[in-house]
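Researcher: Here's a chain I'd like modeled. Treat it as a single chain, no partners, no ligands.
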Amino acid sequence: MSLPKVYHRFSLLSLHSPKTLFFSSSLPLAVKRLPSPPLLRAHSRRFVTGKQFKAKSAMASSRFHLVVPVNALAIEDGGNGSGSNGAANATASVAYDDDLESASETGYRLPPREIRDIVDAPPLPALSFSPLRDKILFLKRRSLPPLSDLARPEEKLAGVRIDGKCNTRSRMSFYTGIGIHHLMEDGSLGPEKEIQGLPEGARINFLTWSNNGQHLAFTVRLDEDDGSSSKLRVWVANVDTGKARPLFESPDIYVNAVFDNFVWVNDSTLLVCTIPLSRGDPPRKPLVPSGPKIQSNEQKNVIQSRTYQDLLKDEYDEDLFEYYATTQLVLASLDGEIKPFGPPAIYTSMDPSPDQAYILLTSTHRPFSFVVPCGRFPKKVEVWKANGEFVRELCDFPLAENIPIAFNSVRKGMRSINWRADKPSNLYWVETQDGGDAKVEVSPRDIIYTQSAAPHENEHPKILHKLDLRYGGISWCDDTLALVYESWYKTRKVRTWVISPGSENVNPRILFDRSSEDVYSDPGSPMSRRTPAGTYVIAKVKKEDDGDTYLLLNGSGATPEGNIPFLDLFDINTGSKERIWQSNREKYFETVVALMSDQKEGELSINKLKILTSKESKTENTQYYLLSWPEKKACQITNFPHPYPQLESLQKEMIRYQRKDGVQLTATLYLPPGYDPSRDGPLPCLVWSYPGEFKSKDAASQVRGSPNEFAGIGPTSPLLWLARRFAVLSGPTIPIIGEGDEEANDRYIEQLVASAEAAVEEVIRRGVADPNKIAVGGHSYGAFMTANLLAHAPHLFCCGIARSGAYNRTLTPFGFQNEERTLWEATNTYVEMSPFMSANKIKKPILLIHGEEDNNPGTLMMQSDRFFNALKGHGALCRLVILPYESHGYGARESIMHVLWETDRWLQKHCAYSSDVKADLNACKDNAEGTVDSQSKAVGAAGGVQELANLDDDKFHSIRRFHGDKLPGDEARSH
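Model: Modeled as a single isolated chain. Structure tokens:
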């Protein structure tokens, strides 16, 4: 598997970043979405569009560092991604009503217009550079999809969701058109040339360049009369003429894209996964089962697995999975010749060798499993010649149900089988020496092997390197240089080794040995260049004055003042560095995106170096530049408009403050345009966060991110409430630290509350947040955080919003998040961390939102349903919103708009305009820390002054938060 194919595994991230840049055919990166401007004020009127909606069941979430391939714009769980702009043709009832008591009415609602206009803005196109860096594609996209797209029937099989009509993953996004621009020498773009010949309404997916940059290949599907999509067909387009046509003349050949789809074998031939022509109708579910559903462990094997969703349930599901996943590979040339390749099988990946002589095929087969997803099914890896001739079988793994749940545990046997990027057709792989069990102490733990694709007789695999930690990948350069990475989660240790693959007499040496949590010490990663074979290897740069060879290290440049990205010339032999570029630290946040001067073979000259950079500031959205040496002249190649001019002057500040145990914390504070705390006073405030685990206080205290990054606002971002005149505290760090032998979660509640207290005290100290009007919210693990804070720190927040969370950890007994101990190994931790167990303590209003089809491990919809019933059973003020057809992230326009309406209503009613201005002190007495106890009842009463004067500082300041800056005990305490 070549390096570009590794990125294919990140395809599910593609729609969580609304604007996307793709570098060549296979090294893309996702960047921010730029929505259109909002209106500043909502209209105080009510309107209804569409027909009344009746839900019917189907019959059948920074930045460009998210690497997503242009040939895989697809997503299973909806996410926050692209879709249809508006839902005029949907059957949902959509209404907006700013009457806060109208929540009992049914139907989908719309949020205020200033929020709605930001979300409804058409997305900017994705960009893709040609292999020769001389052309850029503008891949056009739609906005949010209608709910009818998500309502299409899907099969949930073996951990994947399949659209049976298209025979692909369900809920794929798509491009709507392709524009080609020439990149001029001065960095400007030539006029756009549209790809011609596509059918009207074409939905485009899986776009890739041929290696010579002369052709594009992609799939096309169309909407049908019944609202479904047609099956996918492969199309090709000539980049020079812009003309597109179907690859297959026969209308009966369709793509099977449940796993892989197609790949260029050479510049004129593709290997395509097709639906077998002999395949009949799907298997029918028997009316009467053949017998009971039985699972057995009579051999007493230890089989522990997390709470995977969408698993196979019975023999019918097994047959259905095999039906949809089975592929017939076909070799298809651009001149129309087609040839079957190998037997039908469930092929999960296909990777041509760099010299285009061989194909590495991976397939899965029976027996399947009812307890683990398809990634652990039996797997076979084979080598074939590119002409369809079988060469050899590398391995055939058995079913892997019993991989230990401890982090760094892996499958037994060969794994990570790939082609060397620097060789014509050499394979490499890793084999574990500990049986895959991270708890087994052994040295070495992993061994890396290499061998030619078709070895001669008696040619055995060669040991390339031995590792004591877990293998983490290789960056290839040539026979004299490769970098090998290893890591260990328990200690957070990461190492980088320098090896010479072609020299057995050169000993490996450690280049970097550091903690993965220590971002300040990160030296950066070597930049890669594209080879003529289309693979990526470490770029070598030569300085003309000394003749030495250097690497380019591209780093994020984390500092106590924020990230300051850099590019270093690095001498691999001496370890010396020379900084040749660095981001402007005063106003801008700039990053190195890709190397652009790698079209020719050999070492690169520093004086001919050309890189692609991005540049943004607090008020200026991301633009892209070509930076050329030796003058380092920057040519701007994009000119995207500001997405929301009305919020252009929003105020952003990265703030630092301290937790009571001395841990330094950071957050990003956003304030509305024109806000002046001395003139306008404190605002209602929304705190939105997500906890993280650390092994040291020093690492937890380090600053991550940049104060100069542009404030991109996604469809469900908390920053939308800047348009509603809220202060927003985004991403306050919530470090859960377990130093030494201590596990972080053993003091989860204590550290969670301490972090939240520090954040709240800081925004109150600054005078920007009303202490009685601070709301907390989060998604997924952030929802878990929200519920726990309302249970254990009710003195901090007036209400909470919890989306798609898990609240009862006993329902995830074999680990969750970064907890690798089981329920039976850490019973107290599981119980104490579960807000479900503290439902009786939650007295503040909490809004629960969940997708009905959540497929995220551990956050099945039942979690919110049972938590709501527990809250209701104790008389809590709570509301549960279940979104039909939605998964862990929300994708449909109707759903997202309704989530925003629910959230805005909750914030307006229980935060901004709460009738209960004074705190409910009785509700606070149940918090675990006892921060506010029965003594708080004395506030304002006779004798209250003395009681307040006698309270300890923590209790006193907790009460003060509910009563403003002045309390009757202040004067007494000052003496």
